Amino acid sequence: MLLIDSGGQAALALRADWGANEARSAASAPGSQDAQGRSHGGRVMSVRSLELNGQAVTPPPAQTWGKTRPPAGVDGYLGWGWLSQQRWVLDYRAQHLQLLGTEDPLPASCGALPQRFELLGSLPYLRLSTADGTPLALGLDSGASRNVVRTEQAALVSGPLHWGGQTLAAGDFASAPLQLPVIAGFLGQDFLSRHRVCVDPQQRLLWVQPL
Length: 211
Description:
Peptidase A2 domain-containing protein; 5-stranded antiparallel sheet; 2 helices; 211 residues; Cathepsin D, subunit A, domain 1; 20 strands
């Protein structure tokens, strides 16, 4: 199983012991990615094929996933290094990732009002505001199991968040003593399960629609 991880820097990262058998496959969420490859001594040497929603896609170069305790059943992730190469639509609730060609129109379900996002390294993030107008920057991390915010700013996310002309119901946030530049935390599963997101990485445009 491969995660779709917009917060992951690599194009494709696999756990060090992946491919202990000559070939293996897994269906993932969101999306349903299957991968077959080969490893030697626990190091992935190549990925021969990759399948997304029943369609073959060209496997990106693989590297070893540095996570010391990966989630059970997860072999790795497809990250921003891969996601940034094409436009895509993520419906987390339906566990579906749609890749769009350069000439393909965006689905009508994306809505008509995109906003710009910014990058912190390879992490896309949004500049939002709280109900009282306090600015708040949060990373968009589809690999995070929940929303997380810096402990001292937890009170700011108790209500709706505003982004451009939209009001977003982000869901609950866990608080943690994060020490990050620029951003106060992450929008993860709690947020993504409530919204469809459509992304144009080259233009740095993001459409967010409530589900």
